[in-house]
Amino acid sequence: xxxxxxxxxxxxxxxxxxxxxxxxxxxxxxxxxxxxxxxxxxxxxxxxxxxxxxxxxxxxxxxxxxxxxxxxxxxxxxxxxxxxxxxxxxxxxxxxxxxxxxxxxxxxxxxxxxxxxxxxxxxxxxxxxxxxxxxxxxxxxxxxxxxxxxxxxxxxxxxxxxxxxxxxxxxxxxxxxxxxxxxxxxxxxxxxxxxxxxxxxxxxxxxxxxxxxxxxxxxxxxxxxxxxxxxxxxxxxxxxxxxxxxxxxxxxxxxxxxxxxxxxxxxxxxxxxxxxxxxxxxxxxxxxxxxxxxxxxxxxxxxxxxxxxxxxxxxxxxxxxxxxxxxxxxxxxxxxxxxxxxxxxxxxxxxxxxxxxxxxxxxxxxxxxxxxxxxxxxxxxxxxxxxxxxxxxxxxxxxxxxxxxxxxxxxxxxxxxxxxxxxxxxxxxxxxxxxxxxxxxxxxxxxxxxxxxxxxxxxxxxxxxxxxxxxxxx
Length: 474
Description:
Largest sheet: 7 strands, antiparallel
Shape: globular
Low-confidence stretches: 144-158, 299-306
Mean pLDDT: 82
Distance between the termini: 56 Å
Radius of gyration: 27 Å
Strand content: 25-35%
Helix content: 40-55%
């Protein structure tokens, strides 16, 4: 580790793909612009640009070196301007290993090193190193006494508490993930963008064909389409969380997940700011929950959840054992939450139904034949308002505060006093008259920015109680 090393030559390919991805829009735009008159010159110029990209990727790989020396990870990179980055072991918060499909073919991994001030990205990212070398690098930087090499993974599982998701639970997680709505929205957006490239006569003939179909046939097509979206949602969840395993090792949690892209994430316990239990509208009647945590600092990759998932899905009666095993400081007996006052219910009903009433009035006026749609949405919004009021509340026990709220899913979040960064009480005129207040709690979240939790229309005296607890007033 004291000798300078280069990344695996596969890093050349990853560098080229990154540069190509950043330039693909300009290449496509140039092709559309010059495809008729100057196609030969466009191909010639594009070929030259591709050669430059390949050369840049090779030089970037050759000039990128790393080594561990004097308790630091030292990285040197840059083609024309030589840059040096020194990362002290003491500043390192976590070291994550990620293996995509190409990485796994060649037994490689990507090492991402995060510090408290990583910001929008990892402090350092070694795009392609041998898997054994990546694990040795993590071992050296963490100065731990155990190794994570492949031959020792079984030993780790035997000596440290571990929990792995079953195929049945993984399938259930995909079936109840609610991703069908997200996929439908993405496909609708993609079709709206693709529509401008479809010739008018093809588009018009397709619309006429769809109008001419029978109602029953259209309903069947819609049902098939929704089933396909549901299956895609299941597949996406299973690919993302396949082989999900959480292991507790001393003062950190070690999470492995992914079928195509294998991720190994390390979460130091000292960086956990709050732990939550999420019950979605679909999973709550079935008695299943998701366990998540808010982690301080670090970076958030595109496509990742804002909160770190500690376990995708488990039965409600298994939550206590999970906390006792992996996070005993957050384990608690059944708590009787202090609920929101009854006089606050009308405000929750109003906030939930007002947008639907405004939009529904327009639909009912211009499309009278679809007036039943806003009526159904109004009933649903009123029910959601009742649930939001019913589920809101808090419980304070010593230095620990537990709050419960609902947007669409019901969330129960537990945090300690030392993790709270700010407390805010706000009231508008109607709340003052009703002796209600809104409570806002802030902790440090990902990207180093705040994560906020808000409970609206709490009894004013209860808000003062939490304020006194936060400020150590008696």
